[in-house]
Amino acid sequence: MSGTWLGMPAFPRNAEAALGNSRLRANLRKATHTIRARRAAGVDEMPGWAKLRARGAAVKDAALRDLDKHLLRAEEAVTTAGGRVHWAADAAEANTIVTELVKATGHREVVKVKSMATQEIGLNEALAAEGITAYETDLAELIVQLGDDLPSHILVPAIHRGRAEIREIFRDRMAAWGRPAPDGLGDDPRALAEAARLHLRERFLASKVAVSGANFLVAETGTLVVLESEGNGRMCLTLPETLISVVGIEKIVPTWQDLAVFLELLPRSSTGERMNPYTSMWTGAAEGQEFHLVLLDNGRTGVLADEIGRQALRCIRCSACLNVCPVYERAGGHAYGSVYPGPIGAILTPQLRGTATPLDASLPYASSLCGACYDVCPVAIDIPEVLVHLRARVPHPPAERAGLAAAGWLLDRPGRLRAAQRLAGRLRGLVPRRRLPGPGAAWTDTRDVPPVPAESFRDWWRRTGGEDR
Ligand code: SF4
User: Fold this and answer.
1) For ligand 1, is residue 372 a contact (CB within 6 Å)?
2) What region does 222 belong to: left with phi over 0, alpha with psi -120 to 50, or beta?
3) Closest ligand 1 atom to Cα of 317
4) Is-contact 38 271, C-beta < 8 A?
5) DSSP code string of 73-117
6) Per the record's keyword annotation, is Mitochondrion included, yes or no (predicted)?
7) Could you give the domains of the chain?
8) 83 vs 8, residue with greater confidence
9) Running DSSP on this structure, what letter comes out for residue 308?
């Protein structure tokens, strides 16, 4: 796949193409089932999970309610600690800020810690347009970058790739980005990890500028927090002379006590681990290092204004909802056409980007509304509720609107409904049993049309002595 989401068709077309790829489905099934089983075990052994989950949701809601105050408090704390804070209203402004900051260092390379926010704004592409190369250092992101691919999962961006594919990517592409893959590289996971480690180590030691995101920003001290499991984040955050962190404004938590709740919720929900392997925290600029914090809006204040949709901003990007979603498991992440795939993507992307394109308008329908995503979400985001809410917002085809208007007219008066039921009973022989014509055809592709009864329930009730109303 080419490395861009631009111009992708609507979700059903993307999903249909993915469904034909049996290897992709096998990779997805194996990976999501493994992670979901680990999560279930990690959550089951934790007493008081439901209370912790409710606390997580409450903390996020409170933080979002007073977002302006918390952000100003964080800005003051970061500035006091020697950092500089920049405010970016949208992707273009954030990209310009980061590009200018990198240019000012005189360097043409940056190392990156895995960051959804920078992918959301297309930072790598913006830097490339100015002659600056961004090197991804998370193993899965490295695989995606070397393969000129796109991420398909929040936590495991290369979840759609098997071991043999990764070996081929390393063999063919590593040399173009730095240290080549070792001769005779096999597809054993340890050998692949070692090849990546050697390749990346050279990059860490050479790079003077790093770009990161953050999982959390603690308002009371202006402390940024990154959770990761490979140690690449720690290398990026500590070695370079200049560190630039691009952070969505919803990542704020008011206090350290609030942060503690998420340090328990996140690892168990994402990987099933009791504790995260590497948790890096920093406040302002370290000695000998320049630090810039770019606070990113890019549609978030618009989401905040929507009473139902705003709960999507609670998301801590654990990816638990992806791993239990029957639609994601079959369609894969690329079908969602966004850096945010799966159930959270289906509610976040149309709110951040709007619903003007066929792809974005189709996302609220990329769900069976089974509710599994809500059950596992550590911050209790009612994803089905937001999906239904967004479905009412997207443009509907004229035939659907006309059909629903006719149904409204019919159901508005009992007399009309009774007359329509009697007419349908008389004409039931004319109703096709297998496939409806026109707009109903897609619905009956996989379903039989229910038979129309000769007599309605209301007529039967009256005929058999029930009270008429
Ligand atoms: S919506 Fe909930 S389950 Fe899904 S990634 Fe966000 S926090 Fe995790």
Assistant:
1) no
2) left
3) 5
4) yes
5) HHHHHHHHTT-EEEEESSHHHHHHHHHHHHHHHT--EEEE---HH
6) no
7) 1-45+320-386 (no CATH), 49-298 (3.40.50.10420), 398-463 (no CATH)
8) 83
9) T
Cβ pair 296, 246 in contact under 8 A: yes
Give the closest residue to 375 by CA, choosing from 363, 383, 387, 366: 383
Tell me, what's the pLDDT at 314?
98
Q: Is 379 in the pocket of ligand 1 (CB under 6 A)?
A: yes
378 within ligand 1 shell (Cβ under 6 A): yes
Distance between CA atoms of residues 355 and 30, nearest Å: 33
Query: In b/e form, how buried is each residue of 305-320, taking b as 16+ CB within 10 angstroms?
Result: ebeebbbbbbbbbbbb
**Ligand 1 within 6 A of CB of 321:** yes
pTM of the prediction? 0.89
For residue 104, the number of C-alpha atoms closer than 13 Å in the C-beta half-sphere is 12
Number of Cβ within 10 Å of residue 27's Cβ equals 20
Q: Which is nearest to 244 in space by CA: 60, 66, 121?
A: 121
CB 386 within 8 A of CB 311: yes
What is the C-alpha end-to-end distance of the chain, expressed in Å?
A: 61
Residue of 379, 382, 386 with the most ligand 1 atoms within 8 Å of its CB, for mutation: 379
CA of 65 to the centre of ligand 1 (A): 20
Q: Per the structure block, which two tokens stand in for 405?
A: 């208007």
389: CA distance to ligand 1 center in Å? 18
In whole angstroms, give the CA distance from residue 272 to residue 267: 6
Amino acid found at 97: I
Cα angle 104-108-113, degrees, rounded to a multiple of 5: 95
Which string of b and e fits 224-263 if b means at least 16 CB within 10 Å? Answer: bbbbbbbebbbbbbebbebbbbbbbbbbbbbeeebbebbb
Cβ pair 210, 224 in contact under 8 A: no
Reported as a single tens digit per residue, the pLDDT across 364-407 is 999 999 999 999 999 999 999 999 999 999 888 888 889 899 99
As beta bridge partners, residue 253 has 218
DSSP structure class, residue 396: -
The whole-number pLDDT of residue 33 equals 96
Would you state the structure tokens that stand for residue 268, as one six-digit string?
Answer: 């168990």
Kindly tell me the sign of the dihedral angle through the C-alpha atoms of 431, 435, 439, 445: positive
Say yes or no: CB of residue 157 within 6 Å of ligand 1.
Answer: no
